[in-house]
């Protein structure tokens, strides 16, 4: 591993390592990740000027020759907000999990409430939570942290996603073994009577 030096780049930039990091993130990487691979700010800017790296937004880059991938806008937003804190959620999670046919108008991310000051950028909706999501509420898809099927459905229902989409998502999750009726009802508990009724109705109709 490369250690930060005193005022100068400690070693040659490790292009192979940076490629490995970016490959796990659809070709994207942050300035901090580049620094951990031995790229100084000057070197990073040099490669951006030469067209090897594309600067997508402040602190976020993409390998210019890396193939495009689905839902790049979600991945870019997730990395920009902070991969260690942010989790793809709500309608964006439903889309990634292929539950219902909802088409998110914005990228939905959930972050700890203490991080709500972060600038998300256009086209991104930030949701906050007081408590860290338990491991059972988080899955990994395409290298991204995404809320679990049950959590995604309930979050979307509470946020106002159309009842028909929530109903379809709940039924599909059960049919595909991604969530059980008990898990969905438990997740809906405490989210308000409207959400609980919606989930109960979806499950009752789906069981007939």
Q: If you had to describe this structure to a student in words, what would you say it looks like?
A:
The chain has helices spanning 15-23, 31-36, 41-49, 72-81, 90-96, 149-159, 163-175, 181-188, 193-206, and strands at residues 28-30, 53-57, 60-63, 87-88, 107-112, 124-129, 138-141, 144-147. The chain has 208 residues and is of the alpha+beta class. It has 2 domains: 15-63, no CATH class; 73-206, no CATH class. It has a 3-stranded antiparallel beta sheet with strand order 1-3-2, sandwiched between helices. It is elongated. The N and C termini lie far apart (58 Å). Mean pLDDT is 88; it is low at 1-10.
Topology:
Elements: H1 15-23, E1 28-30, H2 31-36, H3 41-49, E2 53-57, E3 60-63, H4 72-81, E4 87-88, H5 90-96, E5 107-112, E6 124-129, E7 138-141, E8 144-147, H6 149-159, H7 163-175, H8 181-188, H9 193-206
Parallel strand pairs: 5-6
Antiparallel strand pairs: 1-3, 2-3, 4-5, 7-8
